[in-house]
Amino acid sequence: MEISELQKDLAAAFRWTAKLNMHEGIANHFSVCLPNSEDFYVNGSGMHFSSIKASDLVLVEQNKIEEIKKNPDLVDPTAINIHGAIHKRVSHARCILHVHSKYATALSVLKNPTLPPIDQNTMRFYNRVAVYDDFGGLGFEEESNKMAAC
């Protein structure tokens, strides 16, 4: 199988995120949709961001999602659910980066986890970040659809 530029770019994003120490453990996932498709590449289960190569990425085809979910050693089912739901619902979300960085985690525990537009740095995020404040557990079917709707 030929490695695409899309795969190379996504693998580079994983390694760069690790270099910047913006990840935590191995329970984070990135995905990117194929052009004109809802099929997407995602990282496999249990791989540290710093070691992911383009050839390690798993292609999640919409017609094979249920089959892939039955093999959690291949891809974390929550990654398939969360990314699949968002890619379906938000067609312009071609690439999704899901990390548990220390900054995002700190922001998420505040009473008001939004970023008010108080200066140039925060202005870039104004009305561009969705805050999911109804977390009900792991990103399985129903929870993933609620996340995608926010």
Automatic annotation (TrEMBL):
Record-level Gene Ontology MF annotations: actin filament binding
A Pfam family that the UniProt record links to this protein: Aldolase_II
InterPro entries: Aldolase-II_Adducin_sf, Aldolase_II/adducin_N, Aldolase_II/adducin_N_sf
Cellular component, GO, one term: cytoskeleton
Name recorded for this polypeptide: Class II aldolase/adducin N-terminal domain-containing protein
Residues covered by the Class II aldolase/adducin N-terminal domain: 8-149
